[in-house]
Amino acid sequence: MDLKSIDALLSERIRRLAPSRVRDAMEYSLMAGGKRIRPRMMYAAVQGYGAEEHLADDYACVLEMIHTYSLIHDDLPAMDNDDLRRGHPTCHKQFDEATAVLAGDGLLTYAFELASRGTANSAKACRCSEILARCAGADGMILGQCLDVTEETSARVGWEDLKKIHRFKTGELLSAPLMIASVLTGQSEDITRQWQSTGIKIGLAFQIQDDILDVTATKEQLGKSNSDERNGKITSVSLLGKEQAETLMNQLYSESLQEIRAAREFDSRVLTDLVKGIQERSN
Known about the structure:
With about 280 residues, the protein is mainly alpha-helical. It has a single domain, classed as Farnesyl Diphosphate Synthase (Orthogonal Bundle), CATH 1.10.600.10. Helices cover about 70% and strands about 0% of the residues. Helix 3 runs antiparallel to helix 4 (about 55-75), helix 3 crosses helix 9 and helix 10 runs antiparallel to helix 14 (about 240-260).
């Protein structure tokens, strides 16, 4: 599934909502661009198991809505206080803080409405919703955000502490598309848990890569402001140094690719190409 097709799906789903200022803000942030990594990972995994792409349509939209909600809230003055996201003013700058909060809330709740009817199989729908709730919730991404706010400026933070933050803040939601694809295509729970481990590893590599890009790329290249340095946050680069961070990032990507290729009865070509593309990204 290419970016244009994913954008068309997202636009169609968001336009089902009643017109309002909140829907405008939801649409503004959702359709502001982005790499659509989570939907693309899901489509690649579904394809790898030989299933039709459309099986993942609703859940692909769900994941991008949850990711976008997290960015809206992460950019708020109470969090990272950012002015720029994907090359555009952040949601609270384009609208206002109250509307941005509601837009994030709206995307999250609408995502679960879509997830509830994402498959005709009720057992699969329930399991997929459980995965989404855990990966995005207080034992997943929100835990990572909490640790990010409370611990990343502390001089006591070491690599294991930072890895834990990255695992929950980024890795959990990057494991969700692989796990949901596994459920949708009828794989066992053991295989689904293996995909969780691989996704978390990709997420850790991805976040280290973000830390590296924050010090090597310009604001214009990234399409966002670098608030980590302004907010005095500890990053993998500030903690390990750029060279060691790059070595660790490449090691994690390499291990992830090995795990994907080793997956049983799975055509790994599309997913490995996607992960290689992520590894080579410049923003």
